[in-house]
């Protein structure tokens, strides 16, 4: 039997969207990052949507999900695509609205554990880091030509790396082509004070790897596209649930959901009663924490990757 990674916050996510799915059994559900299918499996354990559209930019993830969900009684549609293609996919399938959209953004455990994919410094491999290995520029190709200033800005913006300039200069001087070489260059370039500040649990190259991965996969641009299109496709009562793993993603999700939850502004001088004032079309579901949900101690012990995870949910309450 195949072994599958435990999906982060699977119970909390499935519980958050179950009311929307069960209230609209005729509607489809979208899993925008199907991975190995763990979150969809959790959802199907709580209800029966009309069908589930499973999307992932990684062909290997789609293969894992097909295996895990084989034999499901619920109709499943698999699509090799990015977030920015969501609207096109739903149009092609003639699905104007959905009851729920879920996403677990960022790199997956499968990608990190597949050493040959070049996502992790734990195994020496060619510097690839593409979530979709069928297209796009690899990290090695990027580092072969990038200049110090551009790389430093990339490390600051996407990795929030305090020693970005110092690290960028060392990387450009060495032009590493493997994960091991890159990790070594970063570790040697970083000041002793910065290494001590990280402690023993965090590798000095963590932020650099994050920044390069986010850049070559255009992760934040893709997330922005998902946050724009996803809420628009929800039916009234539909819910969108997104799990993030670092502050860059979470800030984007938090700000977008907050903006959606604000009612349109009208001039104060207009003689409107409270009942006549425009209402927000979206809201955080009743009973769901506005700050989102994080893994409890038990889950953190079982699955260390869940330590930094945060789940945020928005519901469409008006057309």
TrEMBL record:
<dbReference type="InterPro" id="IPR029063">
    <property type="entry name" value="SAM-dependent_MTases_sf"/>
</dbReference>
<comment type="similarity">
    <text>Belongs to the methyltransferase superfamily. RsmH family.</text>
</comment>
<dbReference type="Pfam" id="PF01795">
    <property type="entry name" value="Methyltransf_5"/>
</dbReference>
<protein>
    <recommendedName>
        <fullName>Ribosomal RNA small subunit methyltransferase H</fullName>
        <ecNumber>2.1.1.199</ecNumber>
    </recommendedName>
</protein>
<dbReference type="InterPro" id="IPR023397">
    <property type="entry name" value="SAM-dep_MeTrfase_MraW_recog"/>
</dbReference>
<feature type="binding site">
    <location>
        <position position="83"/>
    </location>
    <ligand>
        <name>S-adenosyl-L-methionine</name>
    </ligand>
</feature>
<comment type="function">
    <text>Specifically methylates the N4 position of cytidine in position 1402 (C1402) of 16S rRNA.</text>
</comment>
<keyword id="KW-0808">Transferase</keyword>
<keyword id="KW-0949">S-adenosyl-L-methionine</keyword>
<keyword id="KW-0963">Cytoplasm</keyword>
<dbReference type="GO" id="GO:0070475">
    <property type="term" value="P:rRNA base methylation"/>
</dbReference>
<feature type="binding site">
    <location>
        <position position="111"/>
    </location>
    <ligand>
        <name>S-adenosyl-L-methionine</name>
    </ligand>
</feature>
<dbReference type="InterPro" id="IPR002903">
    <property type="entry name" value="RsmH"/>
</dbReference>
<keyword id="KW-0489">Methyltransferase</keyword>
<feature type="binding site">
    <location>
        <position position="56"/>
    </location>
    <ligand>
        <name>S-adenosyl-L-methionine</name>
    </ligand>
</feature>
<dbReference type="GO" id="GO:0005737">
    <property type="term" value="C:cytoplasm"/>
</dbReference>
<dbReference type="GO" id="GO:0071424">
    <property type="term" value="F:rRNA (cytosine-N4-)-methyltransferase activity"/>
</dbReference>
<feature type="binding site">
    <location>
        <position position="104"/>
    </location>
    <ligand>
        <name>S-adenosyl-L-methionine</name>
    </ligand>
</feature>
<keyword id="KW-0698">rRNA processing</keyword>
<feature type="binding site">
    <location>
        <begin position="37"/>
        <end position="39"/>
    </location>
    <ligand>
        <name>S-adenosyl-L-methionine</name>
    </ligand>
</feature>
């Amino acid at each position: 039997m195949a072994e599958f990674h435990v999906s982060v916050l699977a119970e909390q996510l499935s519980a958050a969207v179950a009311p929307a799915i069960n209230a609209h059994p005729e509607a489809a559900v979208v899993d925008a990052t199907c991975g190995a299918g763990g979150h969809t499996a959790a959802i199907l354990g709580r209800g029966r949507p009309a069908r589930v559209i499973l999307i992932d930019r990684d062909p290997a993830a789609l293969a894992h999900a097909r295996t895990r969900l084989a034999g499901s009684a619920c109709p499943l549609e698999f699509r090799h695509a990015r977030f920015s293609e969501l609207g096109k996919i739903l149009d092609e399938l003639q699905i104007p609205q959905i009851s729920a959209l879920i996403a677990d953004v960022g790199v997956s455990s499968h990608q990190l554990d597949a050493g040959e994919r070049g996502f992790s410094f734990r195994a020496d491999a060619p510097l690839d880091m593409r979530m979709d290995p069928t297209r796009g520029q690899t990290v090695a190709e990027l580092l072969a030509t990038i200049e110090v200033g551009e790389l430093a800005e990339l490390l600051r913006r996407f990795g929030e790396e305090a020693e970005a300039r110092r690290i960028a200069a060392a990387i450009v001087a060495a032009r590493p082509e493997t994960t091991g070489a890159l990790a070594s260059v970063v570790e040697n370039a970083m000041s002793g004070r910065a290494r001590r500040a990280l402690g023993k649990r965090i590798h000095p190259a963590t932020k650099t790897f994050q920044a390069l991965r986010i850049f070559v996969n255009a992760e934040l641009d893709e997330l922005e596209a998902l946050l724009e299109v996803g809420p628009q496709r929800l039916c009234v009562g539909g819910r969108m649930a997104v799990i993030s793993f670092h502050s860059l993603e979470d800030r984007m999700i938090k700000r977008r959901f907050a903006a959606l939850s604000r009612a349109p502004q009208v001039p104060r001088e207009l003689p409107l009663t409270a009942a006549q004032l425009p209402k927000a079309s979206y809201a955080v579901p009743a009973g769901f924490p506005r700050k989102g949900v994080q893994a409890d101690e038990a889950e953190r012990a079982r699955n260390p990757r869940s330590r930094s995870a945060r789940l945020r949910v928005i519901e469409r309450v008006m057309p």
